[in-house]
Each structure stands twice: as structure tokens, then as C-alpha cells.
Amino acid sequence: MKGVYMLLEFCTIFVFLYVGNFISSCLPVPIPGTVIGMLLLFFSLHLKLLKLESIEKAASILLMNMAILFIPPGVSLVKSLRLLEGSWMKIILVMIVTTIITIAVTGIFIQWFIGRCENGKSIK
Asked: Which residues make Cβ contacts (< 8 Å) with residue 32, sequence separation at least 6?
């Protein structure tokens, strides 16, 4: 019976993925369907339209095996090395700038979050 519940959890996650892909194909703006699906899942959880328990085990399995999901893009990147010739400086510059922005935004958010916790405000 556990297998049926696990299958339902994965199906729930994939429904959000496919709904996001459908919405993306209907929009004139090039937003990836995976991003839209993830936002839909987030807001469904946040607004308590979906209980965390209904996808928690499947999400944990996906998170534990996330490294495997990076193998196909990595292989594609290695196969496309000739296309990237001459662009290495641009790529490295973009990687450095986006890393700095990510660290800065994360730091600002964590400071805000810690300040909110210290002020006794509820996080929920």
C-alpha cells in the first residue's frame, strides 16, 4: 500500500510540472514551465491548498537523488564544447557575477529572517 501512496505523491508533483508547462506554452513570455510549476506548487503549499504530507516522501526522494538529474545537462555541455569556444571569458564572468549576487541576496534574506525571529515574530 505504501507504493500506491508514493505513486500518488509523485503524480501530484508531476501534475504541477505539467500544468506549469501548459501555462508556459500559452504565455507570450518565455518563462520555463518548470519554474511556473514550482511556483504553483509553492503557492499551493503556502496557501494550504495542498498539505506538505501529501508530497513530502516523494519530494525527499527527489532531493536525495538530485545530483543524478544534473548528469544529462552535464553530458550535453561536454558534447557542445566546440560551440562554447571563444566564450569562456563571458561564461566565467557571468558565473562570478551571478554567484556574488546569489550570495548577497541570500545574506540579506538571512539577516532579515534572523532579525524577524529575534523580534519574536512568528515565521508561520
From this structure: 24
